[in-house]
Amino acid sequence: MIEKQEVTSTYIIIREAMMDDIDAIIDIDIQASTMEKPEYWRYILELYLQQNDQRCFLVAEQDNHIIGLILGEIRAWEFGSASCGWVFAIGVTEQGRLHGVGSKMLDNLCDYFRRAGVSKVKTMVVRQNHELLSFFRSQGMMAGPYQELEKEVG
Amino acid sequence: MKLQRATLLGLYAVLELADQPEEQLSRTDIARKFDVSSNHLSKVMRELGRAGLVEAVRGVGGGYKFSGNAKRTTLMDVISIFESLQVDCPDSREPGKDTAIGMALDLVFGEINETIHATLNSISIDTLLMIKNRSVKAQNTEDSATLEETETF
Questions:
Q1: pLDDT (tens digit, 9 = 90+) per residue, A121-131?
Q2: B134–A140: do the CB atoms touch at under 8 Å?
Q3: pLDDT of residue A1
Q4: Percent share of chain B, pLDDT over 70
Q5: How many angstroms separate the CA of residue A86 from the nearest CA in chain B?
Q6: Which of B107, B114, B122, B126 to mutate to test the interface with A (most CBs of A within 10 A)?
Q7: Is the pLDDT confidence value at B41 over 50?
Q8: CB proximity A140 to B under 8 Å
Q9: Is B138 touching A (CB cutoff 8 A)?
């Protein structure tokens, strides 16, 4: 098992998520996506809590309150891409935004990926979400060589 | 995508000033750095001033200073001062626009427009300067490595 490092800033602790965090996680996701999906988050949290070196679910805690979440996974050969870390979700409470919480969580997740032996991190963002795109860009992320395509099949 | 000359000069000026927030740079300084005409830059600086991105400092040693918010101002904010970016003219009166082929082409151009807008709206002045600094650092590292190799021989 790769050790998941606990990083402490002045007031914010980044730590592994626990089952007790589920309500806060659901709340943060509602603030970010405006869509409630409790079953999905229960399933994801249970999945990520199983011992697995390839997955990491972190939360940011301040004064015993969860103010942010990030989760990611190491995947190899998805879409032909060599082993790399994927950020699948990131969210910060409205009050916690613009205080570096997202940066701290992403740094911590990147450290986790690095210690697991991967040197690249990827994510996917809705094009219209300029705020989230700006966040990842401000962290040094640039467009990669892939383009997402889709079509209706129903 | 080709930006108009004034747009490009606007981007150069804002980025150069934001890169040295404590400094005052004259129009001539900026024009010399980017090898453009100082006269051409004059109108551009006026537009940037009107948009609140730069302020003119009068007197001896005067010039321009960046006065915007580098974290909140995006490349698209600067570009929009000078032009509206569209890959294709959205004017529905253009001949052929209401044909099936015209509409299919519009879908594709729409996709390109969305990508351009998403990119330019998500890169702040601060982020662009970070990209610039990273490129300079990488170039310096490469130069030192080449120098070391040359010295070895």
A1: 999 999 999 99
A2: yes
A3: 46
A4: 92
A5: 20
A6: B122
A7: yes
A8: yes
A9: no
Interchain CB distance below 8 Å, B121 and A133: yes
Cα–Cα nearest to A91, from A12, A26, A9, A21: A26
Which class for A1: exposed (0-12), middle (13-18), buried (19 or more C-beta within 10 A)?
A: exposed
CB-nearest partner of B121 from A130, A138, A142: A130
**What is the tens place of the pLDDT at every residue in A75-118?**
999 999 999 999 999 999 988 888 899 999 999 999 999 999 99
**Domains of chain B by start residue, with CATH:** 5-85+123-152 (1.10.10.10)
Provide, as residue numbers in chain B, all residues whose Cβ is less than 8 Å from the Cβ of A130: 74, 118, 121-122
CATH class belonging to A7-138: alpha beta
Question: For tokens 């990520």, what's the residue?
Answer: A48
Q: Is A133 exposed, middle or buried (0-12, 13-18, 19+ CB in 10 A)?
A: buried
B138: number of CA atoms within 13 Å, CB side? Answer: 6
Chain-centre distance for alpha carbon A119:
17
> If you search the block for the tokens 């965090």, which residue do you land on?
A21
CA–CA gap between residue A118 and residue A107 (Å, rounded):
14
Assess B73–A contact: CB distance below 8 Å, yes or no: no
> How do the domains of chain A map onto residue ranges?
7-138
Residue B153 has a pLDDT of: 58
Partner residue facing B127 (CB), from A130, A137, A143: A137
Check CB contact of B119 with chain A, cutoff 8 Å: yes
Mean per-residue pLDDT over chain B, rounded: 90
